[in-house]
């Protein structure tokens, strides 16, 4: 049997009512139907119940969404004699997260019979007691509540006694034995009655106790309290021994019959006896244990005063104590989970978790507020009374802050205010939002040629700020060609660590440099990548020996060089042309005479390779010679080549090759220099001509004005002896031994033109003359 309230459904809550003691598996309610949930999604969304006792007494089926009894419920065990008993729980759904509140009210059934603490009740009554006197009886205990608790008392038939039930202000039904007729001890000294306590359940239950009444004589006045009901109030958590009040009773008898002793009556509960103490002599009631408003807001103390008469007579009174609440409970933060994983790309406004704050105090002491620290990308929102939702308020970045420990602070409005804190750990999970980054955008690799294939030449490294799979970087070459071949024909790269290996041996003379591109790609989804350029620079190695091309004649290394016998010291016989395919110091060549038939006659210039005469040829010198010249580079180790040059010395032969400039191939750099020098010379000559023209024009104007001749030309004259001697030297000089002719160079002749103003300008114009008989002209 259950009852579902629609008003609770409208606010996202379900409320059911069931009777206690139902069997395991008994139907409570259809959660899926009442909350409008899709039954097929209950398992996928991980429906579960969370509560202190909800998971013990209730269970929900993921197949049909039915809420059933998980364990037999004993209402009296859970709630005692509280007027209301309910089991609260939370219904949690994940993906997406939804939380509903549920409550099952436990209804009482009449499963307990009234029971007296003692099965026998002994009473002593004086025969002088007047009819109508009432004697409170020990009340029976029934754990049930409402109509199922004790409703009435009755006794077996008696002419002298009757019983009357009385309901107190706090709803407890007590019984009083009433004397209806005078007692006569001599006629009947004792009575035995059966007291029956009956509850109001259907069917009703009952319990009995035996009353044994002994009739006594003499003491015929009972003690009487000055108040039938005492009322007071106490603050909870007061110090032990606090005075509650002082009860006072009087007895009209005298002597021992008027001496009173105070105590709690049999109606007082065991909890009252634990919390309060009553002084037997003075009637002072003090606290014995701590009072807790959250446990009970009021207490009812049944006290009695018993005289010392024989038989003793007692008087009864009731003390009602109201407990005043104090702020002694800190707010309790109830979290679903204290550790939450959240992806860093979660949008602002994403719901993270829900929690509630409970304060067991009342009034302002039970009103709570909650907050989180500032300057974090989260915000708190109150969804209902003492229920809160935690949202993201700004973008997250795991690389900047990988986790947050949010301190939830809750405080009540009591005075003084009490507070509590709980920490939620939010772990930011990584998403692939960072590309791999190289240390530099471009790298230079220097590789010496003739390297061993298969060896590593470089390693590139890229870092990724992400973690796990998102930070695993692999390396590869972008499609590229090196001299019409793909880069994979030259290099390979380790995809795991970026180590680059040479697949072949490089040749500096064939390839001096080339560029490749390395891509670093992570393993995230989607995969991100970046590239870096790698410039491979091949370093030269001295692996090429000098190659001798020819002499300056261009006729090959085996050509016989003919030297006239008249050649003197410094005479250039030939020039060795050599080249080296290497570069730098490896291509820097030097020449050395390795072997000569006459070392004193020939020499080779170490830098230019020119072979020159070291002295004049003597008649005793051989006419044929053989020279072996070594050409070596400056590499380490040095490589070299040799050339053999045959030389023949001939008589009376003029070698025009040595009278004119040796024709040599003109390099492109020499050609540029010659053109530049020619242009500069022409420009300088034009400027001089213009200056002379301007000067002559000035001189002519001066002559026409009556001045002397502006210029004069001076020509050094030669005497007849001088001329004849020069002419004779110009003719052939003959040596008796060889008969060879040697041409003597002509003396240079100059005409000097002097200006009248030369003293001022010091300007000289020198014009070379080659014809001795020609007249000097200006």
Q: Please, could you describe this protein's structure?
A:
The protein is mainly beta and 778 residues long. It folds into eight domains: 6-107, Immunoglobulin-like, CATH 2.60.40.60; 114-217, Sandwich (Immunoglobulin-like); 219-326, Immunoglobulin-like (Sandwich), CATH 2.60.40; 332-429, Cadherins (Immunoglobulin-like); 437-539, Cadherins (Immunoglobulin-like); 547-665, Cadherins (Immunoglobulin-like), CATH 2.60.40.60; 666-703; 711-778, no CATH class. The protein contains nine helices and 56 strands. The strands form 18 sheets. A four-stranded mixed sheet has the order 1-7-6-3. A four-stranded mixed sheet has the order 8-14-13-10, with no helix packed on it. It has a four-stranded mixed sheet with strand order 16-23-22-19, with no helix packed on it. A hairpin with a 6-residue loop joins strand 53 (733-734) and strand 54 (741-742). It is rod-shaped, with a radius of gyration of 65 Å.
Give the topology, please:
Elements lengths: L5 H5 L2 E7 L7 E4 H5 L12 E3 L3 H4 E3 L5 E4 L5 H5 L6 E8 L4 E10 L12 E7 L7 E3 L13 E6 L5 E7 L5 E7 L10 E10 L6 E11 L7 E2 L3 E7 L7 E4 L2 E2 L9 E5 L5 H6 E3 L5 E4 L10 E10 L6 E11 L7 E4 L3 E5 L7 E8 L9 E4 L6 E7 L2 E6 L10 E10 L6 E11 L7 E2 L3 E7 L7 E4 L2 E2 L9 E5 L3 E2 L2 E2 L4 E3 L5 E4 L10 E10 L6 E11 L7 E4 L10 E4 L7 E4 L1 E3 L9 E8 L5 E3 L5 E4 L10 E10 L6 E11 L5 H4 L8 H37 L7 E3 L5 H11 L2 E2 L6 E2 L6 E6 L3 H4 L3 E5 L9
Parallel strand pairs: 1-7, 8-14, 16-23, 25-31, 33-42, 44-51
Antiparallel strand pairs: 2-5, 3-6, 4-5, 6-7, 9-12, 10-13, 11-12, 13-14, 15-18, 17-21, 19-22, 20-21, 22-23, 24-26, 26-29, 27-30, 28-29, 30-31, 32-35, 34-40, 36-41, 37-38, 39-40, 41-42, 43-46, 45-49, 47-50, 48-49, 50-51, 52-55, 53-54, 55-56
């Amino acid at each position: 049997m259950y009852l579902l309230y629609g008003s609770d459904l409208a606010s996202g809550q379900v409320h059911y009512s069931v009777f206690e003691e139902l069997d395991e598996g008994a139907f409570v309610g259809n959660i899926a139907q009442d909350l409008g949930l899709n039954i097929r999604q209950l398992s996928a969304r991980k429906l579960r119940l969370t509560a202190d006792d909800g998971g013990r007494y209730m269970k929900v089926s993921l197949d049909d969404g039915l809420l059933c009894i998980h364990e037999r419920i004993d209402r009296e065990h859970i709630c005692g004699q509280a007027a209301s008993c309910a089991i609260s729980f939370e219904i949690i759904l994940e993906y997406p997260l939804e939380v509903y509140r549920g409550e099952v009210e436990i209804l009482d059934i009449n499963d307990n019979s009234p029971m007296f603490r003692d099965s026998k009740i002994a009473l002593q009554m004086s025969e002088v007691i007047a009819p109508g006197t009432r004697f409170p009886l020990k009340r029976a205990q029934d754990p049930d509540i409402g109509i199922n608790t004790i409703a009435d008392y009755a006794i077996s038939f008696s002419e002298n006694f009757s019983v009357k039930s009385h309901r107190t202000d706090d709803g407890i039904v007590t019984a009083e034995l009433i004397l209806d007729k005078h007692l006569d001890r001599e006629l009947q000294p004792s009575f035995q009655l059966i007291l029956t306590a009956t509850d109001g359940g259907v069917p009703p239950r009952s319990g009995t106790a035996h009353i044994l009444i002994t009739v006594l004589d003499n003491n015929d006045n009972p003690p009487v309290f000055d108040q039938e009901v005492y009322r007071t109030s106490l603050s909870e958590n007061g110090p032990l021994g606090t005075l509650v009040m002082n009860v006072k009773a009087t007895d009209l008898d005298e002597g021992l019959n008027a001496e009173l002793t105070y105590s709690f009556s049999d109606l007082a509960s065991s909890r009252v006896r634990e919390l309060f103490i009553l002084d037997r002599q003075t009637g002072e009631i003090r606290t014995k244990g701590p009072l807790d408003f959250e446990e009970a807001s009021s207490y009812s103390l049944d006290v009695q005063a018993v005289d010392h008469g024989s038989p003793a007579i007692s008087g009864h009174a009731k003390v009602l104590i109201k407990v005043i609440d104090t702020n002694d409970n800190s707010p309790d933060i109830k979290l679903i989970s204290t550790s939450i994983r959240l992806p860093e790309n979660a949008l602002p406004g994403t719901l993270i978790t829900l929690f509630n704050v409970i304060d067991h105090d009342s009034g302002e002491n039970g009103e709570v507020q909650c907050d989180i620290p500032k300057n974090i990308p989260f915000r708190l929102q109150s969804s209902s009374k003492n229920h809160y939702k935690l949202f993201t308020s700004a973008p997250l970045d795991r690389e900047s802050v990988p986790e947050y420990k949010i301190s939830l602070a809750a405080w009540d409005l009591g005075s003084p205010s009490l507070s509590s804190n709980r920490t939620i750990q939010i772990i930011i999970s990584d998403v692939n939002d960072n590309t791999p980054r190289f240390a530099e955008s471009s790298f230079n690799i220097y590789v010496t040629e003739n390297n061993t294939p298969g060896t590593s030449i470089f390693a590139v490294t890229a870092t990724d700020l992400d973690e796990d799979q998102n930070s695993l970087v692999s390396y590869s070459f972008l499609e590229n060609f090196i001299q019409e071949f793909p880069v994979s024909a030259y290099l390979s790269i380790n995809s795991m660590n970026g180590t680059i290996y040479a697949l072949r041996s490089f040749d500096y003379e064939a390839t001096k440099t080339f560029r490749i591109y390395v891509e670093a790609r992570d393993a995230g989804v989607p995969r991100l990548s970046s590239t870096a350029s790698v410039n491979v620079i091949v370093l030269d190695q001295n692996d090429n020996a000098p190659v001798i091309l020819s002499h300056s004649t261009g006729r090959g290394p085996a050509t016989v060089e003919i030297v006239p016998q008249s050649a003197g010291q410094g005479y250039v016989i030939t020039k060795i042309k050599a080249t080296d395919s290497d570069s730098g110091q490896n291509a820097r060549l030097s020449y050395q005479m390795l072997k000569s038939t006459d070392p004193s006659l020939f020499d080779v210039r170490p830098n230019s390779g020119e072979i020159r005469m070291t002295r004049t040829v003597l008649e005793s010198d051989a006419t044929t010679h053989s020279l072996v010249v070594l050409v070596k580079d400056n590499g380490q180790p040095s490589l070299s080549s040799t050339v053999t040059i045959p030389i023949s010395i001939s008589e009376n032969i003029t070698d025009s090759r040595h009278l004119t400039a040796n024709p040599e191939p003109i390099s492109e750099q020499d050609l540029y220099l010659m053109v530049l020098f020619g242009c500069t010379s022409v420009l300088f000559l034009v400027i001089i001509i213009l200056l002379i023209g301007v000067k002559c024009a000035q001189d002519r104007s001066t002559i026409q004005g009556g001045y002397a001749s502006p210029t004069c030309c001076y020509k050094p004259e030669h005497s007849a002896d001088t001329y004849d001697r020069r002419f004779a030297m110009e003719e052939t000089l003959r040596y008796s031994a060889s008969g060879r002719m040697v041409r003597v160079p002509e003396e240079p002749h100059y005409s000097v033109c002097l200006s009248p103003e030369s003293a001022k300008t010091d300007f000289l114009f020198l014009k070379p003359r080659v014809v001795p008989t020609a007249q000097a002209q200006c």
